[in-house]
Here is the input.
Amino acid sequence: MLDYIGDKMDALDFDGDLNLNWDKEAHVIELEYTMTVITDKDYTIEDQDGKDAESGEVSYDDAVLFYDKTKIDGNEYAEDYLTVIPFAGKKGIDQQTVDGFFAYFQQVLDDGESDLLDFVDGTSEGDEFAVAFDPEELAKAIAAEPAKKADTFFAYPKY
Here is the structure.
């Protein structure tokens, strides 16, 4: 499971930073991402922590949580993550879900980087920035994967 998710993560076309963190005790895997853009505009941008961005560099970070639905309720953590994706205990996660997620996540990252550039250049209409994630689009991306992939599972790692 970790290897397959890691390989899919490594295959993403993304200029930012990606990290995979496995919490063995909690039975969760976090996929963290950071987008960084440079601006030469003459105004102050406040980051996610409420601090002013320095030297024209603006970073945005967030994460996706893959969680063991037999151990925790992912909905309790949904507000803290871009999205939460369940897996079936030791059985792990099916290939259809992982492949569909990463197909959609690539689009999310592409749109997010573009939107962040628009935000720091002052061409977006909003005064706050957040990466957009649509659960319905994720469901469509998963459904678009071949149905036979739903039968292939990547087991939760043993430790």
Remarks:
- Strands lie at 17-23, 28-38, 57-68, 83-87, 93-94, 153-154.
- The chain has three helices and six strands.
- The chain has a mean pLDDT of 91.
